Amino acid sequence: MDLFQYDFMLRALVGALVIGLAAPALGIYLVQRRLALIGDGIGHVALTGVGAGLLLNRSPVLVAVIAATLGAIVIELVRSRGRTSGDLALALLFYGGIAGGVMLVGLSDASSGSLNAYLFGSLTTTSAADLTTILVLGVAILVTMLVLRPALFAVCHDEEYARVSGLPVRALNLLLAVTTAVTVTIAMRAVGVLLISALMVVPVATAQQVTRGFRGTMAAAMALGLFAAGAGVVVAATADTAPGASVVLLAIASFLVVALATAGRRALRRRSGPVAVPVREAVAEPPEHEVALR
């Protein structure tokens, strides 16, 4: 494709593919903990960091990383101590974060286009330095999520069981919070802070319809995220659409296709009548987190 002869399009494609892998790898843990919308809340806090960076003439991405990390740690501490419900803490992040970001951007000399680039993504303006940051942090996120998968799954599935098993529950929860903040920040360049949760959650929701077990769901979600990110950039390049919106719409389209196919398959099975299950296949397997921690 002629457009991919240009360096900026290649950088956009590589950055999108890395984020397409990293976001679902983290998102599966957030879905397991019923914190699917935490990416939105942290994204809004990151927007405050972007505004502060523009106002202070510092790197908006660097300041956003710091702000998002602090916000993620605060919400995790509030959630774990039970002083405020998780929904209320997320709401505070939503409203306070975006209000602070809009106010700080308004006080700076930046144009509204600068704010839109972080709200909705701007992959085609990804520089070589931005791509290096995305690659380094994206690989770090992937390695962390894969290497610590058994422990993180145990914490997300049952904190009490994980604590009794001797796992450092608070440290792992804080690690998830910080990793979420970093993922949101690097994904700002791809889909923007308003759409990042979709790339974390939708591939996971799609994979859950066709897979059994945490490991299979994680692998399928990462594959779906990779497809949505890559195909979204190609669609954006050929149809001249916004890359972030194209990526998210393809992810949602994949979910709808899989949901319809799954519903059709179930309807056919019901029409064909019940299927006898051999006794040896009907034996319940032990919980996956117990198997993972053995």
Verbal overview:
This protein is mainly α and 294 residues long. It has 13 helices and no strands. It has helices spanning 7-32, 38-56, 60-81, 86-107, 112-120, 128-147, 149-157, 159-164, 169-187, 196-208, 214-239, 243-272, 288-292. Mean pLDDT is 79; it is low at 280-286 and 289-294.
Please render the helix and strand layout as text.
Elements: H1 7-32, H2 38-56, H3 60-81, H4 86-107, H5 112-120, H6 128-147, H7 149-157, H8 159-164, H9 169-187, H10 196-208, H11 214-239, H12 243-272, H13 288-292
**Major sheet:** none
Q: What proportion strand? A: under 5%
Q: What is the strand tally?
A: 0
Average pLDDT works out at 79
Which properties best describe this structure?
294 residues, mainly alpha, 13 helices, globular, disordered C terminus
Brief summary:
It is built from 13 helices and no strands.
